[in-house]
Amino acid sequence: MRSYTRTSPWSVLTCFLLFCLIFLQGCLENTPPEKNLNTDAIRINQVGYYPQSSKKAIVVDPGKATNFEIVEVSKMETVLTGDLSKSLSWDLAGETVKVADFSGLQESGSYKVYVEGIGYSHPFEIESAVLNDALKAAIKGQYYQRAGMGLEQAFADKWERALGHPDDSVLFHPSTGKSGFTSAPKGWYDAGDYGKYVVNGAFSLGQMMSYYEQYPDNIADGDLNIPESGNGVSDLLDEFKYELDWLLTMQDEDGGVFFKLTTKGFAGMVMPEEAVKPRYIIGKGTAPTLDFAAVLAKAARIFADVDPTYAQTCLEAAENAWAWAKNNDALIYRNPEDISTGEYGDSNFTQEFYWAAAELFVTTNSETYEEYLKTINIDFTFTPGESWANFMHYIGAIALLENLEENPIKEQLQQAILKEADRLVKMSKSNAYFQPVADFQWGSNSDVLNTAMIIAQAYRIKPDPSYLNSVQEITDYIFGKNATGYCFLTGFGTKTPQFIHHRPSSADGVSEPVPGLLSGGPNSHQQDKHEVDYPENAAPMKSWMDMEPSFASNEVCLNWNSAAVYVLGFLEAETALK
Ligand code: G3I
Ligand code: 9MR
Fold it and tell me: Fewer Cβ within 10 Å of end Cβ, the chain: N or C?
């Protein structure tokens, strides 16, 4: 007798579910695991590329891989294939790499680079105005550094904070030759610390003002969402004024300018309102006085239309400072014994004199400054490190180039800058990371950007597309095409610093750091190595740690952000808006 059992509906359902499970598992097994993961071994500009710009990726330890694909992210479809370059190596990065050049891809979209055996890169965009958000964030980074006011949520989002350092009652340190109290409110905190330093504040402002002077219409009122937005004046000018107002308080009655306003030592990693040790105005010197003269003369031009009275105040302050500096032309600032905050050391003031004379000449058209300029011989060879001391003559040169009509000074300058830009472009082609810095000092990211700023001036003198390409490729380094694989501007890119040496970011209880701040970058001298475990024999370009104690590689600073502001502003103006 044949026996049979009836198939119950439940067992059919169970079989069906089992089948689905096996099918799904099969699908998952067939999916290369790396498709959903990004590898750090392919370095790209994690923010993105302009459609018409050159586009390169660096593939680390590529082994036998000989080609690459560009994959469009939403469909994971290959849209371009290409050959990798031959193997290249650069001791300063300690890596063997091949380059993927996908400049031919111009269509807007989101993409990844794929290399068989290596995997998929972090995603990136190809888009017009692709760096605009980063530009605005880098400017707003300076707003987040404002001292003497609370940052409201409406402007600062989750990084809102209470008012700290009103600086309405600060002491004169004996090094000023004065005693008692004074008021020196507003201004930007210098960096991860809460000091306010004239030299670096003036330099950073000067660099950002160069951008404004060349492209005055690019940042409009309301673009940055800061408290002054809506007052009818460009937000960039409003941000400048917050720092300028403080700078003006740092001038003594005799015209000389004090060096800094800080506590005696650095505060702990606490919020501004908790860092309440007494603050002092400290020292005086030729460098702060000349930097002050330069930036206030520049401000006098920039504010002439929007606020003529303010512009006049700035010009008078600048001329008084110049007169003082001429009579005190070699006063080097050194920290008094009881002071251990930053020194911004410099003992050669030729470049400061040049910057101040250039700005004063352009603003006043007075022969005194022109004659003085003719007596100074300036070397325009780029020197890495300490941009407040080694780069400010470029700000002066830019002022002259922008404002002078036909003039022998201008022609000489054009030649000098073209020559240096050509040297830098050549150097940037000599290594696989496409940037010309070969000595990684404290704040090296700003050095990289400053070389781009020089090449940008060459492009303005002679609009050869190779200069523009070079500025773009150098900028890629900052956004991830470097030996660390990090995009160094906080809040941008997939792999971005989380633990910058920045007191508010450490203490505010918000997991992400304050956005729009540029990490200092690789620093082969590792002055913080007693507090940070760098990998043994870290190559110079890898001497960077995303760790809060790494003040020598992962702090943020006004003059590093200002370099980013200039270069991103230039690129947006010359590439995206055209
Ligand atoms: O240039 C020399 C190099 O030739 C030498 O081989 C090397 C050996 O250590 O030193 C190099 O100089 C270093 C210089 O930075 C340039 O890289 C100095 O040692 C180093 O002390 C100096 O560090 C400066 C640091 O303050 C300490 O004074 C940084 O440039 C400067 O950016 C930094 O600025 C601080 C302010 O003082 C306080 N606020 C935060 C700000 C940013 O970190
Ligand atoms: O925290 C300080 C940082 O803001 C300064 O830029 C830096 C400049 O030297 O110094 C940091 O302070 C460090 C000090 O110099 C050495 N001891 C460790 C301090 C940081 O934890």
Answer: N
Predicted pLDDT at 4 = 36
* CB-count burial class (<10 Å; 0-12, 13-18, 19+) for 88: middle
DSSP structural state of residue 54: -
Residues with Cβ within 8 Å of 563's Cβ and at least 6 positions away in sequence, in order, are 207, 387, 445, 446, 449, 450, 453, 518
Residue-level pLDDT at 229: 98
- Nearest ligand for residue 390 CA: 1
| Closest ligand to Cα 265 | 2
In the 3-class helix/strand/coil scheme, how is 378-436 assigned residue by residue?
CCCCCCCCCHHHHCHHHHHHHHHHHHCCCCHHHHHHHHHHHHHHHHHHHHHCCCCCCCC
Tell me which DSSP letter residue 274 carries: G
pLDDT at 269: 98
191 lines ligand 2 (CB under 6 A): yes
Is residue 516 within 6 Å of ligand 2 at its C-beta? no
Global pTM value? 0.94
pLDDT tens per residue across span 158-199: 999 999 999 999 999 999 999 999 999 999 999 999 999 999
Spot the catalytic one: 69, 167, 190, 193: 193
Q: What is the pLDDT of residue 33?
A: 43
What parts of the chain have a pLDDT lower than 50?
A: 1-7, 15, 22-24, 26-33
Asked if 319 contacts 356 with a C-beta cutoff of 8 angstroms, the reply is no
Ligand 1 centre to CA of 518 (Å) is: 17
Q: Which amino acid is at 557?
A: C
- Residues 387 and 382: their CA atoms lie apart, in Å, by 10
Residue 12 confidence (pLDDT): 52
pLDDT reported for residue 6: 44
Taking CA atoms, 113 is separated from 58, 81, 109, in Å, by 10, 10, 13
254 is catalytic: no
Give the single-character DSSP code of 181: E
3-state secondary structure 8-32: CHHHHHHHHHHHHHHHHHHHHHHCC
Q: What letter represents residue 273's amino acid?
A: E
The per-residue pLDDT for 26 is 42
Residue 142, SS3? Answer: helix
Cβ of 551 less than 6 Å from ligand 2: yes
* Domain residue limits, the chain: 38-126, 132-576
**Domains 38-126 and 132-576 equal at CATH topology level:** no
Work out which ligand 2 atom sits closest to the CA atom of 191: 4
Q: d(Cα 249, Cα 524) in Å, to the nearest integer?
A: 37
The most distant pair of C-alpha atoms in the chain lies apart, rounded to whole Å, by 123
**Does any ligand 2 atom lie closer than 6 A to the CB of residue 114?**
no
Residue whose Cα lies nearest atom 7 of ligand 2: it is 551
The answer to whether residue 193 is catalytic is: yes
The confidence score (pLDDT) of residue 402 equals 95
Whether 555 is catalytic is yes
What pLDDT shows up at residue 258?
Answer: 98
- Residue 546: active-site member: yes
Architecture of the domain spanning 132-576: Alpha/alpha barrel (1.50)
2.60.40.10, 3.40.47.10, 2.60.120.260, 3.40.50.2000: which CATH number matches 38-126? Answer: 2.60.40.10
